[in-house]
Amino acid sequence: MDMWRNGKLSLFWGAIALLGAGVVGSVHAQSSESLIGNAGLFCEDDRLFSYIRQDDGSINFGLEYWFESGAHCGLTGNAHKTDSGWVYETEDCKLDISVRSGSIILETPDEEKLCQSACGSRGYLQGLAFPVSSRVNRKITPQDIMPENLATMTCSPFPQ
Length: 160
Known about the structure:
The protein is α+β, with helices and mostly antiparallel strands. It has 3 helices and 8 strands. An 8-stranded antiparallel beta sheet has the order 1-2-3-4-5-6-7-8, with no helix packed on it. The termini are far apart.
């Protein structure tokens, strides 16, 4: 029997070839990003995250986070594409943005770059997650991400 004509064996070897070529892995990573689309607004409790993906793969984003104490972090910028997601970095801020386990994850991996200049006194960013289920069904425009507009944005599906 010709093993290349046996459908089951051919399917098995085809899958092995795709795994070896990294095709299956890249499809999985692309599927994670497709969960969030090219633009979005995600709201969770007293925080929101919005973004618009750019032609070069980077994202323009905005983040608003209100602490129980009344302190506030507000950050907007452009995060460039990396193998694991996106990264935004300035002199005092490094924010890794990724899509994992059905959530948008924002992390500050560098203890010296906790984005404190984007926050009120004693505030900093560290480990925020926005589940895909927190997505608000609404169109996001570049004007929505501007700092003066982001601060007044609501999580309503309809802009004011």
